[in-house]
Design goal:
The chain is of the alpha/beta class and about 190 residues long. It contains nine helices and five strands; from the N terminus they run E-H-E-H-H-H-E-H-E-H-H-H-E-H. The protein is about 55% helix and about 15% strand. The chain has a five-stranded parallel beta sheet, sandwiched between helices. Bound molecules: adenosine-5'-diphosphate. Adenosine-5'-diphosphate (ADP) binds next to helix 2 and helix 3.
């Protein structure tokens, strides 16, 4: 499962908003001893701190749209260059577009690394809306939820096929309890 030497794995999590990918990424990262890197969390922190980055992304995020690929490329490149990510990582929320998948591939290629797995957590859309309404984060109005799901369907879901063709895709049924989904992911990676 690991790459060269004693490196930990490099894993991407795909999944619609409300699929549980953030929860599963955090659980798996702890198990593997690699950082779980959530771009959504990084951006929310930037907004909360009122940093320059936060100022630039606040409105786009509030609408449920995607931050520009170029800006995300800077954020991710900088984060992956930090020491804790050199020996493996779990990406939660990146890539989200075909362009971002290209950027990630280029970043990895420059350091002669590659992805080990792409885990797609699949949940039907009706179920996602139900979950999102229950979760009710500050920005989770019905309209924003639907915008995020649409963006996922149009821009991110095509990455499933992209990674399937590269034979990196592992799909997981996300319509079960957190611990059942977790067990399946651990089993797939064994
Ligand atoms: P979700 O709750 O939809 O799973 P995240 O917590 O991953 O969302 O991200 C929250 C928001 O941050 C997104 O709706 C988007 O505006 C922005 N964002 C996060 N990651 C990216 C990315 N890779 N590209 C563009 N925008 C992003």
């Amino acid at each position: 499962m690991a790459g060269a030497g004693d490196d930990g794995p490099r894993i991407v999590f795909l999944g619609a908003p409300g699929s549980g990918k953030g929860t599963q990424a955090a659980l798996l990262a702890e198990h593997l001893g690699v950082p779980a890197i959530s771009t959504g969390e990084m951006l929310r922190d930037a907004v909360a701190q009122g940093s320059l980055l936060g100022e630039r992304v606040r409105e786009v995020m509030a609408r449920g749209e995607l931050v520009a690929d170029d800006l995300m490329a800077e954020v991710v490149e900088e984060r992956l260059a930090r020491g804790d990510a050199r020996r493996g990582f779990l990406l939660d929320g990146y890539p989200r577009t075909a362009k971002q998948a290209e950027t990630l591939a280029a970043i990895l290629e420059r350091s002669s690394k590659r992805l080990d797995h792409v885990i797609s957590i699949e949940v039907p859309e009706e179920k996602l809306i139900e979950r999102a309404l229950l979760r009710q984060r500050a920005d989770d109005t019905g309209e924003v939820i639907r915008a995020r799901l649409r963006v996922y369907r149009e821009k991110t879901a095509p990455l499933i096929d992209h990674y399937r063709k590269q034979r990196l895709l592992r799909t997981v049924d996300g319509e079960r309890s957190v611990s059942e989904v977790q067990s399946e992911i651990f089993r797939i990676l064994e």
